[in-house]
Design a protein that fits this description.
By secondary structure, this protein is α/β, with parallel strands linked by helices. The chain has 2 domains: 31 residues, no CATH class; 167 residues, Carbonic anhydrase (Beta-carbonic Anhydrase, Chain A), CATH 3.40.1050.10. The protein contains 10 helices and 5 strands. The structure holds cobalt (II) ion (CO).
């Protein structure tokens, strides 16, 4: 286990190595950001976007929450989407779900207010999705398979939710070539695959 002191040391090593490899790296980083993609992912520590996509600081604008949900009443994500599209002019948005997602597994188990007062409420939309797709999910005969299929269904649902957001509808009305991709990350293989895509109607 790493302490914060160790993280500070590792950061100093990283900063020195970056500056050594590319003396203008931090000058560019400080000047402005010009990210090409907005990433909406799960908070899970195993799905670190910069690492799994081999991208550098400045490339990807990020929003993460438990189980990568897009909620129409969440001002946090709506603000991130608005800033991404209106200010940063980002046209690629990724919603990324993943295998073995703790949020999805918790939702499959039903509400548990005794342990998680806030997480239980947050996951309600996934429990609703499970109810809607119960026949398909319950026909899968292993726990991991059920969770992974629900994660996939939820990722598609979140792309659909996002596509109905004001900022996205306005961008499409204005002819913006914005696309929203639903991806799944396989923890066992370290690979991303596309499961859905949505663009201007
Ligand atoms: Co997760």
């Amino acid at each position: 286990m790493k302490t914060v002191d160790q993280l500070l040391l590792l950061n100093q090593e990283w900063a020195a190595r970056k500056a050594g490899e590319d003396s203008a790296f931090f000058t560019r980083l400080a000047a402005a950001q010009n990210p090409h993609t907005l990433w909406i992912g799960c908070s899970d520590s195993r799905v670190s976007v910069d690492t799994i996509t081999a991208t550098e600081p400045g490339e990807i604008f990020v929003h993460r929450n438990i189980a990568n949900l897009v909620s129409s009443t969440d001002f946090n994500i709506l603000s991130v989407v608005e800033f991404s599209v209106e200010a940063l002019k980002i046209n690629n948005i990724v919603v990324c779900g993943h295998e073995n997602c703790g949020g999805i597994k918790a939702a499959l188990g039903g509400p548990d207010h005794s342990t998680f007062r806030f997480v239980t409420g947050w996951l309600k939309n996934i429990r609703d999705l499970y109810r809607l797709h119960r026949d398909e999910i319950d026909a899968i005969d292993d726990d991991a398979g059920r969770a992974n299929r629900l994660a996939e269904i939820s990722t598609i649902e979140q792309v659909n939710n996002l596509s109905q957001a004001y900022t996205i509808q306005k961008a499409w009305d204005n002819g913006c070539p914005l696309r929203i991709y639903g991806l799944m990350f396989s923890l066992k293989e370290g690979r991303l695959r596309q499961v859905f895509e949505k663009f201007a109607p």
